[in-house]
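[Q] Does anyone have a clean C-alpha coordinate version of this?
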Amino acid sequence: MTSLTPLYQLAADRKSAEVTDWSARISWVVGLVVLIAFVYWLMRQGWKWRGSLQSDLPELAATPEGYADGEKLLTLSGRYHASTTAGQWLDRIVAHGLGTRSRVELTLTEQGLDVVRPGAADFFVPAAALREARLDKGIAGKVLPEGGLLIITWAHGDQLIDSGFRSDRSAEHPAWVEAIDQLTSTTEGTAR
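[A] Here you go.
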Protein backbone atom coordinates (compact mmCIF):
# COMPACT_ATOMS: atom_id res chain seq x y z
CA MET A 1 0.00 0.00 0.00
CA THR A 2 1.10 3.45 -0.81
CA SER A 3 0.79 6.30 1.55
CA LEU A 4 -0.92 9.48 0.56
CA THR A 5 1.21 12.58 0.63
CA PRO A 6 -0.43 15.44 2.43
CA LEU A 7 -1.63 18.25 0.18
CA TYR A 8 0.34 20.93 1.95
CA GLN A 9 3.57 19.14 1.03
CA LEU A 10 2.57 18.94 -2.66
CA ALA A 11 1.72 22.63 -2.70
CA ALA A 12 5.02 23.55 -1.07
CA ASP A 13 7.07 21.63 -3.67
CA ARG A 14 5.75 23.51 -6.73
CA LYS A 15 5.99 27.16 -7.60
CA SER A 16 3.23 29.04 -9.36
CA ALA A 17 3.85 30.04 -12.97
CA GLU A 18 4.36 33.72 -13.70
CA VAL A 19 1.10 35.45 -14.40
CA THR A 20 2.34 37.44 -17.40
CA ASP A 21 5.32 37.00 -19.67
CA TRP A 22 5.66 40.63 -20.77
CA SER A 23 8.32 40.05 -23.39
CA ALA A 24 6.19 37.45 -25.21
CA ARG A 25 3.10 39.63 -24.99
CA ILE A 26 4.92 42.69 -26.37
CA SER A 27 6.37 40.58 -29.20
CA TRP A 28 2.89 39.38 -30.19
CA VAL A 29 1.44 42.89 -30.09
CA VAL A 30 4.30 44.32 -32.19
CA GLY A 31 3.97 41.43 -34.66
CA LEU A 32 0.21 42.01 -34.97
CA VAL A 33 0.68 45.77 -35.52
CA VAL A 34 3.28 45.08 -38.25
CA LEU A 35 0.91 42.59 -39.93
CA ILE A 36 -1.99 45.08 -39.88
CA ALA A 37 0.25 47.84 -41.28
CA PHE A 38 1.45 45.51 -44.05
CA VAL A 39 -2.12 44.52 -45.02
CA TYR A 40 -3.16 48.20 -45.04
CA TRP A 41 -0.17 49.05 -47.27
CA LEU A 42 -1.13 46.24 -49.69
CA MET A 43 -4.72 47.52 -49.85
CA ARG A 44 -3.48 51.04 -50.56
CA GLN A 45 -1.16 49.79 -53.31
CA GLY A 46 -4.08 47.87 -54.87
CA TRP A 47 -6.23 51.01 -54.82
CA LYS A 48 -3.46 53.05 -56.50
CA TRP A 49 -2.88 50.29 -59.07
CA ARG A 50 -6.59 50.21 -59.93
CA GLY A 51 -6.51 53.99 -60.38
CA SER A 52 -3.54 53.76 -62.75
CA LEU A 53 -5.34 51.07 -64.78
CA GLN A 54 -8.31 53.41 -65.15
CA SER A 55 -6.20 56.47 -66.02
CA ASP A 56 -7.53 56.46 -69.60
CA LEU A 57 -10.92 57.62 -68.29
CA PRO A 58 -11.41 61.29 -69.35
CA GLU A 59 -11.67 64.06 -66.76
CA LEU A 60 -15.12 64.54 -65.26
CA ALA A 61 -17.23 67.42 -66.54
CA ALA A 62 -17.67 70.47 -64.34
CA THR A 63 -21.03 72.12 -63.76
CA PRO A 64 -21.68 74.50 -66.68
CA GLU A 65 -22.20 78.24 -66.26
CA GLY A 66 -25.84 79.18 -65.74
CA TYR A 67 -26.78 75.70 -64.53
CA ALA A 68 -28.36 77.07 -61.36
CA ASP A 69 -30.66 79.29 -63.44
CA GLY A 70 -32.48 76.30 -64.98
CA GLU A 71 -35.63 74.75 -63.57
CA LYS A 72 -34.84 72.00 -61.08
CA LEU A 73 -36.75 68.82 -61.83
CA LEU A 74 -35.61 66.98 -58.69
CA THR A 75 -33.18 67.32 -55.81
CA LEU A 76 -31.87 64.66 -53.46
CA SER A 77 -29.75 64.61 -50.30
CA GLY A 78 -28.11 61.38 -49.32
CA ARG A 79 -25.00 59.28 -49.86
CA TYR A 80 -22.88 58.56 -52.89
CA HIS A 81 -21.58 54.98 -52.60
CA ALA A 82 -19.54 54.19 -55.70
CA SER A 83 -19.29 54.14 -59.45
CA THR A 84 -18.69 50.92 -61.35
CA THR A 85 -18.43 49.73 -64.91
CA ALA A 86 -22.04 49.43 -66.10
CA GLY A 87 -23.48 45.98 -65.52
CA GLN A 88 -20.56 44.89 -63.31
CA TRP A 89 -21.56 45.89 -59.80
CA LEU A 90 -18.23 44.86 -58.23
CA ASP A 91 -15.88 46.57 -60.73
CA ARG A 92 -15.35 49.83 -58.80
CA ILE A 93 -13.99 52.84 -60.67
CA VAL A 94 -11.51 54.79 -58.53
CA ALA A 95 -10.10 57.21 -61.14
CA HIS A 96 -10.92 60.91 -60.67
CA GLY A 97 -12.31 60.27 -57.17
CA LEU A 98 -15.29 58.20 -58.34
CA GLY A 99 -14.42 55.51 -55.78
CA THR A 100 -14.69 57.86 -52.81
CA ARG A 101 -17.82 57.51 -50.67
CA SER A 102 -19.35 60.75 -49.49
CA ARG A 103 -22.46 62.72 -48.75
CA VAL A 104 -24.15 63.95 -51.91
CA GLU A 105 -26.53 66.60 -53.16
CA LEU A 106 -28.04 65.66 -56.54
CA THR A 107 -29.85 68.14 -58.75
CA LEU A 108 -31.56 67.10 -61.97
CA THR A 109 -32.50 69.67 -64.62
CA GLU A 110 -33.10 69.61 -68.38
CA GLN A 111 -29.33 70.21 -68.82
CA GLY A 112 -28.29 67.15 -66.82
CA LEU A 113 -27.35 65.83 -63.40
CA ASP A 114 -25.22 67.87 -60.99
CA VAL A 115 -23.45 65.76 -58.35
CA VAL A 116 -22.12 67.85 -55.45
CA ARG A 117 -20.03 65.86 -52.97
CA PRO A 118 -18.62 67.66 -49.91
CA GLY A 119 -15.14 66.30 -49.25
CA ALA A 120 -14.85 64.68 -52.70
CA ALA A 121 -14.72 65.76 -56.33
CA ASP A 122 -17.99 67.15 -57.74
CA PHE A 123 -19.00 66.25 -61.28
CA PHE A 124 -21.69 66.91 -63.85
CA VAL A 125 -23.43 64.45 -66.18
CA PRO A 126 -24.95 66.14 -69.26
CA ALA A 127 -28.49 65.08 -70.14
CA ALA A 128 -27.22 63.56 -73.41
CA ALA A 129 -24.91 61.25 -71.42
CA LEU A 130 -27.65 59.89 -69.12
CA ARG A 131 -28.79 56.40 -70.17
CA GLU A 132 -31.12 55.04 -67.49
CA ALA A 133 -31.96 54.88 -63.81
CA ARG A 134 -33.05 51.85 -61.83
CA LEU A 135 -33.48 50.60 -58.29
CA ASP A 136 -31.06 47.90 -57.21
CA LYS A 137 -29.75 46.24 -54.09
CA GLY A 138 -25.99 46.54 -54.43
CA ILE A 139 -22.95 48.27 -55.82
CA ALA A 140 -19.26 47.79 -54.97
CA GLY A 141 -18.90 47.90 -51.21
CA LYS A 142 -22.59 48.37 -50.39
CA VAL A 143 -25.47 45.91 -50.32
CA LEU A 144 -28.94 46.92 -49.15
CA PRO A 145 -32.43 45.43 -49.29
CA GLU A 146 -33.97 45.17 -52.77
CA GLY A 147 -34.57 48.65 -54.22
CA GLY A 148 -32.43 50.37 -51.58
CA LEU A 149 -30.05 51.98 -54.07
CA LEU A 150 -30.69 54.39 -56.92
CA ILE A 151 -28.36 53.39 -59.76
CA ILE A 152 -27.89 55.95 -62.53
CA THR A 153 -26.19 54.74 -65.73
CA TRP A 154 -24.35 57.35 -67.78
CA ALA A 155 -21.79 57.52 -70.56
CA HIS A 156 -18.37 59.02 -69.98
CA GLY A 157 -16.10 58.94 -72.99
CA ASP A 158 -16.60 55.51 -74.52
CA GLN A 159 -17.46 53.83 -71.21
CA LEU A 160 -20.83 53.30 -69.51
CA ILE A 161 -20.76 53.92 -65.77
CA ASP A 162 -23.21 52.96 -63.02
CA SER A 163 -23.23 55.36 -60.04
CA GLY A 164 -24.96 54.33 -56.81
CA PHE A 165 -26.83 56.77 -54.58
CA ARG A 166 -29.02 56.36 -51.52
CA SER A 167 -31.38 59.12 -50.55
CA ASP A 168 -31.98 60.09 -46.94
CA ARG A 169 -35.62 59.41 -47.82
CA SER A 170 -35.65 56.26 -49.97
CA ALA A 171 -39.28 56.89 -50.96
CA GLU A 172 -37.83 59.47 -53.42
CA HIS A 173 -36.04 56.81 -55.49
CA PRO A 174 -38.96 55.85 -57.81
CA ALA A 175 -39.51 59.51 -58.75
CA TRP A 176 -35.86 59.75 -59.77
CA VAL A 177 -36.11 56.64 -61.93
CA GLU A 178 -39.18 58.03 -63.68
CA ALA A 179 -37.69 61.53 -64.16
CA ILE A 180 -34.40 60.25 -65.59
CA ASP A 181 -36.21 57.82 -67.89
CA GLN A 182 -38.38 60.70 -69.17
CA LEU A 183 -35.33 62.93 -69.61
CA THR A 184 -33.41 60.25 -71.54
CA SER A 185 -36.38 59.51 -73.81
CA THR A 186 -36.77 63.26 -74.48
CA THR A 187 -33.03 63.59 -75.18
CA GLU A 188 -33.06 60.57 -77.52
CA GLY A 189 -36.10 61.96 -79.37
CA THR A 190 -34.39 65.34 -79.79
CA ALA A 191 -31.18 63.70 -81.06
CA ARG A 192 -33.04 61.86 -83.86
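[Q] Thanks! Anything notable?
[A] The first strand starts at residue 72 and ends at 85.
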